[in-house]
Write a structure and sequence with these properties.
single chain, mainly beta, seven-stranded mixed β-sheet, four-stranded antiparallel β-sheet
Length: about 120
């Protein structure tokens, strides 16, 4: 069982920057995707950014050119660097990993979430 632990959330002013990180308890082998989702109060959880093992990255339109996702598979981490932040970025941010295990079964894991508040 893979455990994901996020860190780095907090309070930031509009226009500021923040980085959230996620570390997995074990190395993920083979084809996989690491991603960040977010969920604001009263809203559904939505994809912010993803990075797959082939090197492809995807971003929600609302964060393109402001957020950057990076992964370090040797260190079992995935980070989300957020810049030029806006009040609408306020949400709980969740780390997500999916991969196919040795038997071909899809495995999905979620972190506990880290709160990000953008406010003056």
């Amino acid at each position: 069982q893979v455990q994901l632990v996020e860190s780095g959330g907090g309070l930031v002013q509009p226009g500021g920057s923040l980085r959230v990180s996620c570390r997995s308890s074990s190395t993920i082998f083979g084809e996989n995707t690491k991603a960040w989702y977010r969920q604001a109060p009263g809203k559904q959880r939505t994809l912010v950014a993803s990075s797959d093992s082939s090197g492809q990255k995807k971003y929600a339109d609302s964060v393109k050119d402001r957020f950057n996702i990076d992964r370090d598979d040797l260190d079992n981490t995935v980070t989300l660097q957020m810049t030029n932040m806006k009040p609408e970025d306020t949400a709980a941010y969740y780390c997500y990993v999916k991969h196919w295990d040795g038997s071909g079964t899809l495995r999905e894991y979620w972190g506990q979430g880290t709160q990000v508040i953008v406010s003056s």
